Amino acid sequence: MKIAPKGEQARSNAALPKARTLIEALPWLERFHGKTVVIKFGGNAMVDEDLKAAFAQDVVFLRYAGLNPVVVHGGGPQISAQLDKLGLESSFTAGLRVTTPETMDVVRMVLAGQVQRELVGLLNEHGPFAVGMTGEDAHTMTAVKRYAVVDGEQVDIGLVGDIVNIEAGAVKALIGDGRIPVISSIARGADGHVYNINADTAAAALAVALGAEMLVVLTDVEGLYKDWPNSDDVISQLTASELDEMLPTLATGMLPKMEGCLRAVRSGVGTARVLDGRVQHSLLLEIFTDEGVGTMVVPDDEPTVLGGLA
């Protein structure tokens, strides 16, 4: 019987925690293999170089692990920066960007020509996976004009839209070909106009249309707080009904994210999660570890679970 030298044994033992980490992921790899995960990419993760690189690694890891990731993105900070550079006014009403035809030109240019291309490039550093498209392509997303509501009155905010239909065939074809679709939140209306769409809303609608197992929304907070601003305790899991009760109390920035999560789980998506995009690899930590790192929304009939195993 051959006995390894003490030095080799020590090195082998030192590597054991890595093996335990991999084994911890096994139930989730089994659970989610072949399933579709729609990820809304936004917040600080979009503007910090290290976070962008880590996000790309996470998404490609999901692909290699046998999941079908689909990325939906906005680009608020980049749009505002480009509007400032061009000397165009950037204003918001009821949390929505007022989108004139000139602003819409910038939105299309930044989302499809800058943010999307950069993200596709980062993903494709790890293999020939990512394919960029917008909601306009192949009639993937159809929208109608949306109005803001201020003091109970409708206010025209320009070319801002709500999604009324999803044709997911092109996205499904890319998934079937082993690709990672990267989709800009722009949609065309039956009236011929192109509309700026909230990326949280777009991701939720696409998750429903694809029959996704999971919707993941990256944001700039740890998750949904129990009693903000009085407490920074994060809710690890809640049901759709519990979330519904909380919606009227949520801040403007969190509201569309949680409304999207609610619509998704009530329309057949397995779970919806809100994660802190400021934490590197938060996507993998949420999906493949026992504890999870964000807030998970489950259907009302879902049993209480831990971490990613829903």
Task: Note down, in words, how this protein is organized.
The longest helix is centred in the middle third of the chain and has 24 residues, at 101-124. It contains 11 helices and 14 strands. Helix 5 crosses helix 6 and helix 8 (199-210) runs parallel beside helix 10. It has helices at residues 6-14, 16-24, 26-32, 49-64, 76-86, 101-124, 169-176, 199-210, 240-246, 255-266, 282-288, and strands at residues 36-41, 68-73, 92-93, 96-97, 130-134, 141-150, 153-166, 180-184, 186-189, 194-196, 214-219, 237-239, 271-276, 295-298. With 310 residues, the protein is α/β, with parallel strands linked by helices.
Unreliable runs: 304-310
**Percentage of residues in helical conformation:** 25-40%
Assign the structural class, choosing from mainly alpha, mainly beta, alpha/beta, alpha+beta, or little secondary structure. Answer: alpha/beta
Mean pLDDT: 89
Strand content: 15-25%
- Principal-axis shape equals globular
Q: List SSEs in N-to-C order.
A: HHHEHEHEEHEEEHEEEHEEHHEHE
Output the number of helix runs: 11
Main sheet: strands, sense, barrel = 8 strands, mixed
**Major sheet strand order:** 5-8-2-1-11-13-14-12
Oligomeric organization of the protein chains: single chain
Count all strands and give the number.
14
Using only C-alpha atoms, the radius of gyration works out to 21 Å
How far apart the termini lie comes to 46 Å
